[in-house]
Amino acid sequence: MQVSHGIVRSGGGPTGLTIGNFDGVHRGHRAMLQRLVEKTRELQLPCSVLTFEPHPREFFSPLTAPARLSRLREKLELIADAGVQRTHVLRFGARLAAFSADRFVEEVLVRGLGVRWLLVGPDFRFGARRAGDFAVLRAAAAGGRFEVEAMGDVVEAGQRISSSSVRALLAAGDMAGAARLLGRDYSMSGRVAHGEKLGRTLGFPTANIVLRRMPPLAGIFVVEARVEEMREETCRVLRGVASVGRRPTIRENAPPLLEVHLFDWDGDLYGRHLRVKFLRKLRDEKKYDGLDALRSAIAQDAAQARDYFGKHG
Description:
The protein contains 10 helices and 14 strands.
């Protein structure tokens, strides 16, 4: 998939397009991307996505914005897996936030991206003060400039599949429910960084991934992991137990960290990308009275995780 960043420039030719944040690329998003792929194939147009970085809510309300389900890298990988040919990542800042709805249509969609067919969700809003909606797009498309289509919600058991509903399930520790809406087990990935080596001192060495934003879940989890740089044919699944949180026993108000203790692994992972799949929540994070109590709790967590894998193959 071709990925471009920054200012949208003309000259790319006509395209079929959908717009959105696509956080988590859940089953609702995937249905939308499937419709995009099918329609652009029918119209013989390139299949394109426009998304934003950062999320607009992170720009307007950085302290209260919802936790991200996926990093940009993960989101782009999932969009590519859906069959999209091009994704343009448009930086969302003060300049773009000031665009009127009409200016966004003319400069970004028509002249910049050359849209000929456009698909949006039912609650899509754009432009300064969120003044643009489907009615504005339909009026702008009049006269055959481009076609626009709105896609309805994807609903399961009476529940709308949305990023918000996935976040709520993850926060509640309902990993099976989140996986059902995502269409896959929830995962996080990042580059393994050097830590304080405390896990090794306690007898449970960990691969540490620094989380630059608050994650949508916290606690102790049964996990599987893969080293992303390994070739598919040589990459084995690594099982283990992971902690997501602030390590209150070690330090007050520490930044969030993903710590993964992998069973039956003694290799060097520093600097490599690790993808961690969350299978089951064991418990919430807890502050212990000293390192001996912490060591005992980790040993119990590891035993529970091994028991889980013994029962689930």
